[in-house]
Amino acid sequence: MSQGLLFDSADVFCARSTTQVTFKGKLGRPIHRWYRLTPSFSPQLALDIAQHFHLSGKDRVLDPFSGVGTVPVCMKYSGIPSGAIELNPYLFFVSAVKTRTYHDVGAVKSCFETFLQRLRPHLRPLKALDAARQYLDKHAALVPPIHRPGRWWSPCNLAQLVAIRRHLLENLGEYDFPDLLRMAVLAILVPISNAKHNHVSLTFADRPQPPLDVWGVLAKKLREMAADLENVRGKPCAEVQVFRGNSKLVSRVLPRSVRVSAVITSPPYPNRFSYARETRPHMFFFDFIPSAKAVGQLETEAIGGTWGKATSVLAKGVEPTNEVVASLLRPYTDRIGKSGRLMANYITKYFNNMYSHAQEVAAVCRPGAKLAYVIGNSRFYGHPLPSDEILAAIFEHFGFALEAIHKMRRRQSKSGLYEALLLMRGK
Ligand SMILES: C[S@@+](CC[C@H](N)C(=O)[O-])C[C@H]1O[C@@H](n2cnc3c(N)ncnc32)[C@H](O)[C@@H]1O
User: Fold this and answer.
1) In terms of Cα–Cα distance, which of 110, 109, 170 is closest to 139?
2) Which residue, of 72, 126, 192, 385, has the greatest Cβ tally within 10 A?
3) How far is the C-alpha of 404 from the C-alpha of 393, rounded, in Å?
């Protein structure tokens, strides 16, 4: 392709199917299927963007909002060096574990089998309610410190989880692949819980789960993971680095020498979805976070965070940090603010943060860098908020030219909500 021109991308990116945009596209794909994060995007989208940008081994891609690592996993197996940043300690862990290379798959398999064999006798008796209750009383100190664990898991399932947690806390050092074991356990926490995935956010089912064969569920997950590692064994891999950090400060999180030629990412949408809330069971299970207070702090630092403590920060009032954000938001926050000041503050904080982020991205980009941002628009009290256009205008302020905004998919029919892809190009 000639330097400086992107061909008409509407055919590839407009009116895509759900599996070509959303998490549904990763359900059957090796490695991608290890953990379900509903607001994550389809590997096919990352691959199509990379192809559209004509990326190669000479490029360096950044995903500053890594989530479960969709972009770095795709880049790794496409031979394109990449880096990713994630704020949430649990999602950072998922991205890091999925992007590692496991050379000796035989050793991984035998580690999994040893673990399963050692675990089985501990879990089998706990499918009986009395035994489960007694076990939970005896090992109360090992119940994950999440608020109301009994709401999340029925007693027999919780007792089996506590037994797994106990076994791993006591023996983790004896296993050669402790993070893969932790990954598998974390991946089954929600499937065996009383929560369900009917909405983007988790909600609790009306009826709790019956006692399950948790060992069997875990064995299935570990075998799936082993099969996936077998599947990618020997494939050429590019370098990947995943960093835990805040993408409002990209230039401080990345090593100073890193200059990126493309950004492929999806920031949180301004829709009040809370990644911290959604990942509480996981964060508390293996102590990724020390306390409920730290979850509140994480949510306050997250872009688009609004849950718990983050809401009280908004209640104090938020002003645009500069005239660019003020003038872009005024038409929307004036209207939305009349119905609810808190939401106007929420939107202001969101775009103040995205402004800082865009400034930082500009600082780490090579000349002519290509940017792809996937973002959904929002609606507050019936008033639309064109997040895609506002974000594009912020990047234009930092010298990026807008190539196209493609509406990829409607999010709820007739609601006017959609997911858009912004394609931009640096000077
Ligand atoms: C839409 S999700 C990205 C999903 C990702 N594309 C995937 O397929 O898994 C947005 C991510 O941004 C993360 N995030 C929120 N605020 C952040 C910040 N200030 N710095 C870095 N990551 C942040 C959230 O924890 C979440 O994982």
Assistant:
1) 170
2) 72
3) 12
Ligand 1 centre to CA of 216 (Å) is: 32
User: Measured from the CA of 70, which atom of ligand 1 is nearest?
Assistant: 8
- Give 55 Cα–ligand 1 centroid separation in angstroms: 23
Number of Cβ atoms within 10 Å of the Cβ of 416: 13
Query: According to the model, what pLDDT value does residue 416 have?
Result: 83
AA identity, residue 394: I
* Cα 259 versus chain centre, distance: 23
Whether residue 4 is predicted with pLDDT greater than 80 in this model: the reply is no
* Cβ neighbours for 374, distance < 8 A, ≥ 6 positions apart: 21, 41, 45, 265, 266, 408, 419, 420, 421, 422
Q: Strand pairing of 365-376 and 195-196?
A: unpaired
Task: Out of 40, 65, 306, give the residue to mutate to test ligand 1, the one with the largest number of ligand atoms within 8 Å of its CB.
Answer: 65
Lowest mean pLDDT among 119-133, 208-222, 399-413: 399-413
Q: Which residue has the tokens 């989880």?
A: 161
Residue among 40, 63, 66 whose CB has most ligand 1 atoms within 8 A, to mutate? 66
Confidence at residue 376, expressed as pLDDT on a 0 to 100 scale: 93
Q: Of ligand 1's atoms, which has the minimum distance to the CA of residue 69?
A: 9
Q: How far is the CA of 209 from the centre of ligand 1 (A)?
A: 30
What single DSSP character describes residue 398?
T
Pocket of ligand 1 from Cβ distances under 6 Å? 37, 39-41, 65, 67-68, 70, 85-88, 91, 246-248, 266-268, 275, 301-303
Q: Domains of the chain (ranges plus CATH)?
A: 10-98+237-287+357-425 (3.40.50.150), 105-232 (no CATH)
Tokens of 3: 């330097």
Stated pTM of the model: 0.95
Provide the 8-state DSSP code for 22: B
Question: Residue 414 — pLDDT band, cuts 50, 70, 90?
Answer: low
